Amino acid sequence: MTAPLIDNLQYCNWSPKIFRELRAGGVDAVHVTIAYHEELREVLGNLTAWNRWFEAHPDLIFKGLTGDDVRRAQATGRTAVFFGFQTPTPIGDDIGLIEIWHQLGIRFMQLTYNNQSLLATGCYEAEDPGLTRYGRQAVAEMNRVGLVIDMSHSAERSTLEAIDASARPIAITHANPHWWHPALRNKSDAVLRALTGRGGMLGFSLYPHHLKGGSACRLEDFCAMIAETASRYGAENLGIGSDLCQDQPDRVVEWMRVGRWSKTIDYGEGNAANPGFPPMPVWFRDNRDWDNIRQGLARQGFDAAEIGGIMGGNWLRFYDRNFGPAE
Q: What is the pTM of this model?
């Protein structure tokens, strides 16, 4: 079987149109965000909505739980949908909920989303004291049950401590190297060396604020960045986490950046002049554009096996090893 196509982070305004585009683009698996700031009851509502989509569109999508579900998606011409949290809010201060959420199908959880959480520090805080005591306990429990630690929005020290504290590889599902584009959310060389050195995965983001040149970023520059990243850290721990937010209304940006914690708008990413969603690059507007990236990687000199890995094979290997209980 050929390597799958996996996008390890999207937050679209989901609809049958997008489900059909996933299939048109050959996307075998997608990791979807079902919590930014939502608390337990709200997340259950999001799960209910997804169950209805699965019931209504079984020819297009189904719920993914293991790496074998990616293979089943390939074999049946459908897309396996994996769930993740970009916040630890749904566990509150109850460590027992980590196992419950894993049982309900959650496979990734960020220890923080931009702000200080009960577990760790977000990248927009002025000070980063690292993992809290609860954070270290949560890391151990996530390792035990097979809920992957995601540090995409976390600050430097917290991220390095999470990599060190975790007995299993962690993920940065959607970010780019800071040395390529100095967005606050992009990751330092020290973080990327520690991450990949422990078998962790980096998913390259296509969200314009994370790209050199923003919405005008060229495909050649994006793929050259991937080539340089591979030369520094190896290609085997690299994938894509597009951070595609297709068809979302601009008001959703306020929810993503502000949630309920502030009465004023936090524009994030230094983009106060344009608080809405930025336009995607012309070479990646939706899930039908994946071949552009595949062709761009080939022009950078990647061979077929390396391209297959970056486009999804590396994520599948990571799923196989990390979605189940610790041995």
A: 0.96
